[in-house]
UniProtKB/TrEMBL annotation:
SUPFAM superfamilies: EPT/RTPC-like. It comes from the Eukaryota. Residues 14-380 form the RNA 3'-terminal phosphate cyclase domain. Gene3D superfamilies: RNA 3'-terminal phosphate cyclase domain, RNA 3'-terminal phosphate cyclase, insert domain. This is RNA 3'-terminal phosphate cyclase domain-containing protein. PANTHER family: RNA 3' TERMINAL PHOSPHATE CYCLASE, RNA 3'-TERMINAL PHOSPHATE CYCLASE. It comes from Discina gigas.
Length: 403
């Protein structure tokens, strides 16, 4: 095997957090590109380095991709990730004739965010097709399959998307507007919650059903440029039972300018656990979400006299209205989730995020930087931030567009 040069991805670039690690190892695994990440989370408290959730992603992808690693341990501030250059049987773990083999179990071991773990492994699983399965008499017309991903960890964790956000915003947008239309939709189900706030007697459990693309296929270029009109706002309220009525009243009392539908009313089971998600639905099938996981310190600092329900509803609604006003098809958080799919798609993909926010958050800029550094593609700034993707084919290491 000829030597390959490590691609340098300093971990303190731009946002400089765990997202850089997750996207880097995800794309490295798919494209068979060896990477070196020094200064991992260097600006974070307690010295930064890999936490349990980051390490879980590294370990799982290294096993799935037959990758050699250096520095894959907790608190490590430097990581080398060398995926196998051979497109061999490492993908067969995802496609076998026995349905139980299509189940993947990942245990973070802490209340670390399971949704961020999904962010890291989702693209790899979607592309993990097998030529053996495609040729099987049990699979007609090269039809796609579905993998069941079971994760143990945290469901509602600070500084990460909630499972509700994945279920109501991220998964529907990917299924309807990004992935090939013939694929079944992404789905998920939570069997037990685990919060970052308050002590937990056990970790959370959730199952994610992820379709895999047919062997040799690619994600077609996609455009998100016209969201249509706002048709309704859906609310998910997960708070102590005695507080649910206060949240409902606070929402009803607000002038939201459209239909309000409360789709989840759930007892959080703990006096300190409060979570609110608001999702604006549009006539063209887009969804914009903003949420708030209760932080008593921030609440008392910013609005010491206000009721928790009033504070959370007003804060969350203000953020959502800002998302609505800019006119984009996606919210700030979904914008950075789409970068990897834009980079992997076949052809030129556009995502209109709204007036004045095309450049995106630091997370979005970081995701673009990683994708550009690894593949040579370039995101332009012509109104929608389009990019010519590499056209990766499922089940192989072949790219259509190698810059």
């Amino acid at each position: 095997m000829p030597p390959r040069d490590l691609i340098q991805l300093p971990g303190n670039t731009l946002e400089g957090g765990g997202q850089l690690v997750r996207i880097s190892i995800g794309l490295s695994s798919l494209l068979s590109l060896p990477i070196h990440i020094p200064r991992i989370r260097a600006g974070r408290p307690a010295g930064g380095g890999l936490k349990a959730q980051h390490l879980t992603c590294v370990n799982w992808l290294s096993k799935a991709r037959d990758a050699r690693t250096v520095g894959a341990e907790k608190k490590s501030r430097e990581l080398e990730f060398w995926p196998s250059i051979k497109d061999t049987n490492h993908r067969e773990v995802f496609w076998t004739k026995e349905p139980p083999k299509r189940i993947i179990n990942i245990n973070i071991g802490t209340p670390g965010s399971m949704t961020l773990t999904v962010q890291a492994v989702l693209p790899y699983i979607i592309f993990a097709a097998s030529e053996t399965e495609a040729e099987s008499v049990n699979v007609k017309n090269n039809a796609p399959g579905t993998i069941e991903l079971r994760i143990i960890g945290g469901t509602n964790v600070s500084h990460s998307p909630s499972v509700e956000y994945l279920d109501q915003v991220m998964f529907p947008i990917l299924s309807a507007h990004v992935l090939p239309r013939e694929l079944p939709p992404l789905r998920m189900e939570v069997s037990k919650r685990c919060w970052a706030i308050g002590s937990n007697d056990s970790l959370g459990k959730a199952t994610f059903w992820i379709p895999t693309m047919p062997f040799g296929s690619a994600i077609p270029a996609f455009e998100m440029k016209d969201r249509g009109e706002i048709t309704k706002i859906c609310a998910s309220i997960i708070v102590p039972e005695v507080e649910i009525s206060k949240f409902k009243k606070a929402l009803i009392d607000e002038d939201i300018g459209t239909e309000l539908e409360i789709i989840i009313e759930e007892d959080s089971g703990h006096p300190k656990r409060f979570y609110l998600l608001l999702v604006a639905h549009t006539s063209n099938g887009y969804k914009l979400g903003r949420d708030l996981l209760y932080n008593r310190f921030d609440h008392k600092k910013m609005a010491p006299e206000s009721e928790t329900a009033t504070y959370m509803v007003e804060t969350c609604l203000k953020a959502l209205k800002k998302e609505i006003e800019h006119g984009g098809c996606v919210d700030e958080f979904m914008q950075d989730e789409l970068v990897v799919f834009q980079a992997l798609a076949s052809g030129r993909s556009f995502v209109y995020a709204g007036r004045g926010v095309e450049e995106g958050s630091l997370h979005t800029q970081t995701a673009r930087w990683v994708a550009e550094t690894l593949t040579g593609i370039v995101f332009d700034s012509e109104g929608k931030f389009g990019v010519e993707g590499v056209g990766l084919k499922a089940g192989s290491l072949e790219w259509e567009n190698k810059s």
